[in-house]
Each structure stands twice: as structure tokens, then as C-alpha cells.
Amino acid sequence: MRDTDDKQIPACSPSLLSPRLVEQIRELAARCDGPFYVYDQAAIEQNCRDFLAIPYADKSIHFASMANSTRRFLEIVRGAGLQIFVNSPGHLALAREIGFAGQQIVYTSSAMDDGLLRLAHDAGAIVNLDSMGQLAAWRRLFGDEPVGIRCNIGELVEPRPTLAGYFLGKQSRLGLTVDEIESLAGQHGIAGLHVYVGTDILDLGYFRDCYQQLARLTKLFPALRFVDFGGGFGLPHNSDAPFPIEQYRDLVTELMTRLSNELGRSIRLLLEPGRIIGGAAGFFVCRVTDVKLRGDWQLIGLDASSTQFPRPLFYPADARHPVTLLDAADRSVTLRSSLYGCSTYSRDFLARDLQLPATRIGDLVVLGQAGSYCATAFTHFLGFEPATEFFV
Ligand SMILES: Cc1ncc(COP(=O)(O)O)c(C=O)c1O
């Protein structure tokens, strides 16, 4: 697990952006007023292929639309062969408009009322329910129709805090407890078991422990058709190695093959990757509009607000995005710097306390790892428009 105490974001060297991308960013900046996102389409498609290359054949990979629900982004992942996971009526409607068919959509949510349960059911989506109460409501509405359940297997593993806290165990509000799951043993209407272990995780060991425990619970359900291992695949920060996708492919293939053999029928593997599909393929670009020097602290004012790049608002302590000053003249000397937004809101920062070279008004600033949970998290608070999004 990553050390979340390390809040320093090192200045990203320009070499992390390919010369081609830098050229494209400059071209877009020349014709675009205001901040914008730019996504590398080929990188998104490669990330999709990384999951489709899992050798286990009986599988479907459902992109988690909460990570990026821009229409073009969803069209790209669909074109690359992924299916979709949604958790709201808005994203369900969008998925259907884009052309995802019923069974290509996984709907996992919590506290769904009858109307929402009907909506997901009538769309033909694969539904995972969050509680005994939700299961009772499903049975009341749809009898024994097969459905999945979200499993809080925190008692079977040692729950770990991930970015945004605990997703398993007593500290998580989500899913059925192990006792509740066991009380359903033998029910033919349980079609699948779902687990979401946490987010932004690079340690394969935690995935393995959780998946193994979920696999053990499958034996309770004679008509089980699928396991859904959710998402959670992390992005590398600072000196982290990238997510070990090859080892991951081996891990799930071995586990699923063994499970299907043990149960004597093919069990479908569902995955719901979000962050990893577009995170490193997206960049947020803005311009310097003011520079204040407070002793050795460089305060860099931008033509953008954190409402347009909101991860630092949601995760002030943990949102870490590599920053590149494209036009910095001298990179040998750096100053403690913060990037602030063009509003009066005291918490309007896009990055804090990182080392950057001296900058000037008009310079282009690029924030990396901006393809997931960024554009989608836009908020109307403060009155700025959403940043334009480009795909190159
Ligand atoms: C149930 C579920 N699946 C998948 C995802 C996507 O997770 P990630 O972006 O960590 O891969 C989320 C994100 O919150 C989720 O709640």
C-alpha cells in the first residue's frame, strides 16, 4: 500500500509528456481560451486492452463510468471492447444512449428505492444489491429473478484503508456482512457475488486475499453465475512502479480457472476498472495569470478554478497530480510553490506545496493524471464553466 503521508508532489519533468503531446497541447492552447482537458485516446485504448488480454475467457470488463462520464470517453472505451458499470440513473441513461445493451451494463448502488430497482431491472442490467433490505425489495418486486449481492467480506480479511477510507469491514457502510451472506446459503436467486476492495491500490496481495475469500463464498450458492471483483487498480505516484497488470492477469486467470473447475461449471468474471483506464491518459492545461512571491513561497495564480479540477477539493490531503510548467526557463532552481484558482474561495488550490521552477504570467501549466475523477467531478459551486475536453 502506498505511503499516504508523503504529500510532496515532485515537479514533473517535461520528459514525462511526449514531445508529440506537448506539441498538441500548445496547438490546443493557441486556439482555446481558458483551461482544458486533453486525453490521449491511444493510451485509453491500450489500458482497455490490458484488461481484455486477461486469458480467462469467460469474462466481461465494465468501465466504471463514475471515473469519467464524458460521452466521447465512453464511446472510446466501448469502441475498445469494454462494457460499462454505472451507479446512477443518469449514467444508466447515458450508457444506453451510447449503445451499451442491457446485459453489458452492471448496476451496483445502495439505498435504491422501488423506482430505481425497476429502472435497473427493466434496463436488463446485471444488478448487485447492497443489503438484506434491498434484496427483500427485489424479491417483492421481481420474485426469484437472479440478482447479485455486494459482499462486505471485512471479517474474512484484514481490511486496509485505501484512498477515501475503508471499503470493507465494520468501518464501511457498504455491502452485506458475512453472517448475512451465509444466511442466504442455498438460494437459487443469488446469481453473483460482488466485492469492491478499495481504490487506487497497487498491492496485488490485497486483491488476492479479498478475491480468495469471495471465491470461498461462491460455494454457498448453487445457481451462481458470476463473481464481480470491482475495480480499485491504482496509478503510480512519485517513485511507485505501475500497477502490475501482467501479474494481475495471471492472478485472476488462475483463481477463476480453479473456481470454475471446483464448481464444475464456468463462472463469469466481471471487473469494474475506473481510475486506471483514463487516469494517466488525461491532462489538465491552464495558464499562469498571476505570480506572488512570499519569501521563498511561489504562489501561482491560474486562469482555472479547482471547481473545474476538483480532486484537490475532494481530497485536499491526498490528491497528487504531477505538475509541469511547459515554459519554465530555468529548471535547475525550484521554489516551494502552490497553484491557486481564479476565485476568492480560500481553499481554491489545484496543487499545494510542491517544488517548481520560477514561472511567469502566460506560462502553460499541465497537471497530469487528470483523466479520472477530474472532469467528471466538476461542480457549479463558484460559477465557473466546465473546462473543454479534447481527445487527441
Ligand atoms: C462498486 C465500484 N466499482 C468500481 C469502481 C471504480 O473504482 P476504481 O476507479 O478505483 O477502479 C467504484 C468506484 O468507486 C465502485 O464504487
Radius of gyration: 22 Å
The DSSP helix count reads 11
Bound heterogens, unique = pyridoxal-5'-phosphate
Q: Biggest sheet, open or closed, and with what strands and sense?
A: 8 strands, mixed
CATH topology of the largest domain: TIM Barrel
For the record, the count of structural domains works out to: 2
- Helix share, percent: 25-40%
What structural class do the secondary elements suggest? alpha/beta
Which percent band covers the strand fraction? 15-25%
How is the topology of this model organized?
Blueprint: H1 19-31, E1 36-39, H2 41-52, E2 59-64, H3 71-79, E3 83-86, H4 89-98, E4 105-108, H5 114-122, E5 126-129, H6 132-142, E6 147-150, H7 178-183, E7 190-194, H8 204-217, E8 226-228, H9 245-263, E9 268-271, H10 275-278, E10 282-294, E11 297-302, H11 311-314, E12 323-325, E13 335-340, E14 349-356, E15 364-367, E16 388-391
Parallel strand pairs: 1-16, 2-3, 2-9, 3-4, 4-5, 5-6, 6-7, 7-8, 8-9, 11-13
Antiparallel strand pairs: 1-10, 10-11, 10-15, 12-15, 13-14
Helix pairs in contact: 2-3, 8-9
Bound molecules: pyridoxal-5'-phosphate (PLP).
